[in-house]
Amino acid sequence: MVKISLRVSMIIIGDELLNAKINDLNLQILAKEIAPLGFSFKKCTVLGDKFDQVTDEIQKQSKENDILIITGGLGPTKDDLTKSIIANALGVSLVENELAREYAIKQYANFGREWSKENSHYHMMPEGSLPLYNPAGMAPGIHAKIDKCEVFCTPGVPRECQAMVRETIVPMLKDRAQSGHELFICRTHSIPEETIFFKLCPNLWETLEEFGKVSSLPIISGVDITVDLRPEHQNDESRQRLKVILEETPLKDNIWTYGPRNIEEVIVHEASAKGLTIGFAESCTGGLASSTITDVSGSSAVFLGSVVSYANSIKESIIHVKEETLKENGAVSIETASEMANGARKSLGADIVISYTGIAGPGGATPGKPVGTVCIGVATKNGVSASRYEFRGDRKRLKNKFCQQGLIDLLNEIRSS
Amino acid sequence: MVKISLRVSMIIIGDELLNAKINDLNLQILAKEIAPLGFSFKKCTVLGDKFDQVTDEIQKQSKENDILIITGGLGPTKDDLTKSIIANALGVSLVENELAREYAIKQYANFGREWSKENSHYHMMPEGSLPLYNPAGMAPGIHAKIDKCEVFCTPGVPRECQAMVRETIVPMLKDRAQSGHELFICRTHSIPEETIFFKLCPNLWETLEEFGKVSSLPIISGVDITVDLRPEHQNDESRQRLKVILEETPLKDNIWTYGPRNIEEVIVHEASAKGLTIGFAESCTGGLASSTITDVSGSSAVFLGSVVSYANSIKESIIHVKEETLKENGAVSIETASEMANGARKSLGADIVISYTGIAGPGGATPGKPVGTVCIGVATKNGVSASRYEFRGDRKRLKNKFCQQGLIDLLNEIRSS
Fold first, then answer.
1. Under a CB-based contact definition with an 8 Å cutoff, are residues A122 and A100 in contact?
2. Nearest by CB to B291, which of A40, A75, A288?
């Protein structure tokens, strides 16, 4: 079988992405949506709301690609230019479109409002193009063909973009799809990238390369090692061999999962399978660990609740940390972390409680306890233990590092329970 | 004075950005760093780790720009190709560079390790280029000139990229800078974009356009209206006139701030000024509101703590919601929200407590209470009130929507206190 690889690229339109107002989410969202079809983007270009520049880019890219997905600039306001740009690129005018009008009426009704021409120009489309239904908002998308390239335009709001790609565009693309990539992912914690590849496992990269293209990606708490498996290795035997190779290296104890799942998903899955309940006592992380766990659908089966004891008064009143412990050791100490975990475990009635107390900065450092210090406690029915760690970074990064370290400690505890 | 507008673009390199593994953060980070210089990006292109494609793009873009910032592909592993690509584009080889060697030795020492040639090739640079010091990691950046374009390469890890741009590249760019943009930002909540511009304020856009380029951006809880002020309007009088114009429209009560600050920053600032303390009782938001507030440096002056009462047992035990209330009205009800806020206010000892109880889905809907329903309570020394809202979206979006609505309710309460 000869595989024909379709060239798929993306153009993102919006001044707000180039002037730091917001961060683009659509590239990753769409890459995820099209991956099961075997597509991945060749290129993604971000441009401002500039008529000429966007027109040029669309004309150039439609020559270099088979499929072009364009997001943004479809809304009702005057900075939304995509429709006119597509009409211009096609050399046609905007005309009233019966299907677009129907979509507009239907969508306004869904949101309990009545559509009229004066409200929005959603019934106007480039002549000869097809409106695309928007399952999550008002503005319809556009499907058109510029030369040999199929062009799909979606709104820029990530939720609308995702819904339109998933429900409307992906079904249209299914028959243009070829068979997919398959990624083998090994997720590790606590060892820097170059320690892995230059010190601990100097031959690992070459060994993995026999299975496909290797890449290494530092993430907040460790490194993801990914192999884009060649077709002959897309099978259980090769995946098993890869695991054996990795687990014969010094990385063994630092591998926490294979596959794309996040640590919070693995925690909910494994705690749930063992019938364990969990909770947190959070100081410096301010609720982030609890929020991260509750991002997982189904977390209510394992997560009972938490106490965010930011002020010392809360540490004393709700989770019963002793006043002397705080006075003698300070809030950021092994002793306080232990009492927080123990006290919260009793208050919450959970099997395992993780506590966090640390200094996220920029203020709050004391002699011997720099910004980035965190003490993490683990309480179970068998007792309590606590560890001290030091990380570097700004406030948000430190909150994240602290949170991830506690989740690793939690996962280890679940696995040994 | 004649202003020369420098053309600045960005190229981001990394397979992981095109195959959905991670979301790019560097575009927004760098746009923020260069904005004070008066620079904004003309274009940003995301490409995979492909030697030929990246080389082509760099050659093309170096003809169309005065400054080109390239992130990614500088790490120690074999998928890191940027150095070779730059050497290729310059038509030179990689050679040992004395300054790069010094940086490598220094940085390894900072992280408590010893550098040697066998560890990494960080001492190799394209001939004739300048290594850039990396304040936050190991890999040095590159400064080179391709034709008339100045090229800066930074690592892809957002923290390292940001540190290098801020501490090393921005100072180098200062003398190439021209005077800056100034954005007037009006942040509103709870009204959709098209209701604002087509129904409530049909002439607003044109009126604002007299001051500069207008843009409208839907955010999670409302719409940001931004005016990129023309030089003659970059003064207090024009900013004051814009405020008067906006506050004479029906938007008046939905404007919660002017300027770039987030709602959590505004809350911490205003509560702090009034000496008020705050806390949360979070069920469906799972700690997100608390974590959002504690992202703000200085939040410890106002935020005491929270109870994340995910399970009903915690609602009863720690914040004293009555069993009958839960039985008769359900956990998602005005009554439960009120008792949660009141009970948590007593447990936490805070001036204002916001409670959240709702259904983030995908499961958990009951007749009359669809996914997206949330009840939010506000307790103060004067009593308690609660409201019910309905939103749409997936689990993460709903958690966010719930969180933002409660923060708006909190801000209103702080302002009326």
1. yes
2. A288
